[in-house]
């Protein structure tokens, strides 16, 4: 490869690799749980890339996401709106520069 060539890694090649993930195209948090429900680290989860150009903000991003979501889940119970079941939810991502969830309505009921 010629020096100075721009390289754009396609992380979907590993993040959606069907030899690595049980259901690579669906939102499935169980990918990160063993049979006992304990967290497992998956080497194929490379959302922050790897090597020399790995994300410099990885630890900050992981800490922020942990604090943000645990704090929400400790304070609220989330559910679909009345009349909608979890099976009715369409979790197909909208495709853009990144994969985003499509807009949903939900109820957040205070736990306290
Ligand atoms: C969920 C959140 C984040 C994700 C998924 C993410 C993902 C990534 C990825 C995949 C790259 C490599 C891009 C490439 O191929 O060159 C990258 C680079 C980078 N990220 Fe993040 N990032 C996140 C949050 C952050 C935060 C919070 C910061 C800083 C506060 C940050 C700072 C950087 C920097 C400076 C680079 C460039 C590193 C380099 O090329 O030397 N990122 N990020």
Structural features, described:
It is a single chain. The protein is α+β, with helices and mostly antiparallel strands. It has a domain at 7-55. It has two helices and four strands. It has a two-stranded antiparallel sheet. The chain has a two-stranded antiparallel sheet with strand order 2-3. It is globular and about 60 Å long. The model has no long low-confidence stretch (mean pLDDT 93). The site of protoporphyrin IX containing FE has 10 residues, from helix 2.
Present the secondary structure layout.
Layout: H1 12-15, H2 58-75, E1 76-79, E2 94-95, E3 99-100, E4 107-110
Antiparallel strand pairs: 1-4, 2-3
Bound molecules: protoporphyrin IX containing FE.
Protoporphyrin IX containing FE (HEM) binds near residues 49, 53, 56, 57 and 61.
Compute the separation of the termini in Å. Answer: 59 Å
| Computed Rg | 18 Å
Helix-strand topology string: HHEEEE
Kindly estimate the percentage of residues that lie in beta strands according to DSSP: 5-15%
Q: Could you tell me which ligands this complex binds, including any ions or cofactors?
A: protoporphyrin IX containing FE
Order of adjacent strands in the largest pleated sheet: 1-4
Structural class of the helix and strand makeup?
A: alpha+beta
Main β-sheet description = 2 strands, antiparallel
Helix content range of the residues, please? 10-25%
Q: Please, what is the average pLDDT?
A: 93
Oligomer: single chain
| Low-pLDDT stretches | none
User: How many strands appear in the DSSP assignment?
Assistant: 4
Using the alpha-carbon principal axes, give the shape. Answer: globular
Query: How many H/I helices?
Result: 2
Pfam families: p450
Keywords: Heme, Iron, Metal-binding, Monooxygenase, Oxidoreductase
InterPro entries: Cyt_P450, Cyt_P450_CS, Cyt_P450_E_grp-I, Cyt_P450_sf, Cytochrome_P450_fam2
Protein name: Cytochrome P450 2K1-like
